[in-house]
Amino acid sequence: MEQKSSIPHVLIFPYPAQGHINSMLKLAELLCLSGLHVTFINTEFNYSRLLRYTDAKSRFGRFPGFRFETISDGLPEDHPRSVGFLSLNDMFDQLKTVIKPAFREMVISDRLKSDVRNQITCIIADGILGFTIDVAEELGIPSIAFRTVSACCVYAYFCLPKLVENGDIPFKDEDMDRPVKSVPEMKSFLRCRDLPSFCRVKELNDRGLQFVETETFNSTRATAQILNTFEDLEGPVLNQLRSYWRNLYTIGPLHALLKSRKSTDSSQTVSSNGLWEEDRSCMAWLDLQPLKSVVYVSFGSLTMVNREQWLEFWYGLVNSGKRFLWVRRPDSFAVEEEECQIPAELVEGTRERGYMVEWAPQEEVLVHPAIGGFLTHSGWNSTLESMVAGVPMICWPHFADQQINSRYVSEVWKMGMDMKDKCDRSTVEKLVKDMMDDKREDLMRSTIRVSEKAKRSISEGGSSFRNFEALVDFIRKRV
Question: Which reaction does it catalyse (predicted)?
Answer without folding.
Answer: 7-deoxyloganetate + UDP-alpha-D-glucose = 7-deoxyloganate + UDP + H(+)
